[in-house]
Structure to design on (300 residues):
């Protein structure tokens, strides 16, 4: 697969993921008063890359999964968790951001109170979404519990929430390379890794395959974050569609730690690790192979 084919693939996948997200939000809206539903729609359906759901559907397919609609429903659960985390991350008590995905942050439009409630409503909704969809896939009802556990552990204190906590504690401090890897491995890497693992588990992949994809995810997650820091340091808020920058927030970054060129080299090395993990198993994974390179060559 070349880059042009990857772009087409990503565009087509995004449409299917968005359809599943729209259905999931319509269901939540039927259970909640309308301003919360509107805030959820604003936070979730905005213009994101949908990388986590696409990693999930791709891993599922490249591990031999055959279902169509239900895997998009499963993948939507990852975007729901991701979107809640962005809505909370942007709040005044965290990063105090005005711009996200090229539009006003959810609390700037709907207020803090509505945003906190809207984002919180997404967490159990995502768990339900993951459980209901995974049961219909190759892993069956017993495997679905393992898939959902993967999502909740990655989102929890040992993963994303814990990473965000380290991030907030680290403001104004100079973190060591090991501390920065730990922070981002949890804050960003855990959910990216879970996306791949959930796809593989849902397809009832061999244990060895699931482990290799987890290893691919951890390396790719670090490369993704290093690239985020590179973009943060080199692109405008308008182009990235978000503010404030990590430098504005006095956070340690890979660019601050290594300098621009070495940070980029570090990202390339992590992608080589990710590809090594993929090559260690016997699956045909053309999309995951190209996706790994795309992660460090993206422009936003
Ligand atoms: C209770 C301490 C505590 C935390 C709550 C807020 C929170 C949980 C977690 C925040 C985690 C967070 C903001 C991670 C950000 C990771 C990241 C690199 C986001 C950008 O991802 P992209 O580039 O964004 O995939 P798009 O917009 O394309 O989806």
């Amino acid at each position: 697969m070349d880059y042009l084919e990857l772009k087409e693939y990503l565009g087509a996948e995004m449409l299917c993921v968005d359809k599943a997200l729209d259905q999931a939000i319509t269901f939540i809206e039927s259970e909640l008063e309308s301003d919360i539903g509107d805030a959820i729609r604003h936070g979730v359906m905005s213009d994101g890359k949908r990388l986590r759901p696409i990693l999930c559907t791709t891993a599922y397919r490249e591990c031999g999964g055959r279902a169509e609609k239900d895997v998009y429903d499963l993948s939507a659960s990852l975007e729901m968790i991701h979107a809640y985390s962005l809505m909370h991350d942007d709040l005044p008590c965290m990063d105090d951001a005005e711009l996200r995905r090229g539009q006003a942050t959810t609390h700037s439009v709907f207020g803090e109170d509505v945003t906190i409630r809207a984002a919180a409503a997404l967490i159990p909704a995502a768990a339900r979404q993951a459980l209901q969809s995974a049961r219909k896939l190759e892993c069956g009802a017993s495997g679905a519990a393992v898939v959902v556990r993967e999502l909740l552990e990655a989102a929890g204190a040992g993963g994303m929430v814990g990473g965000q906590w380290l991030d907030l504690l680290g403001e104004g401090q100079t973190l060591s390379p090991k501390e920065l890897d730990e922070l981002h491995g949890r804050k960003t890497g855990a959910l990216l890794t879970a996306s791949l693992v959930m796809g593989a588990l849902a397809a009832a992949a061999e244990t060895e395959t699931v482990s290799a994809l987890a290893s691919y995810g951890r390396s790719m997650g670090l490369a993704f974050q290093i690239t985020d820091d590179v973009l943060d340091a080199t692109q405008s808020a308008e182009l990235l569609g978000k503010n404030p920058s990590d430098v504005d927030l006095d956070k340690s970054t890979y660019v601050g730690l290594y300098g621009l060129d070495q940070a980029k080299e570090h990202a390339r090395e992590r992608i080589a690790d990710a590809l090594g993990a993929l090559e260690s198993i016997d699956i045909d994974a053309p999309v995951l192979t190209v996706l790994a390179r795309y992660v460090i060559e993206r422009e936003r």
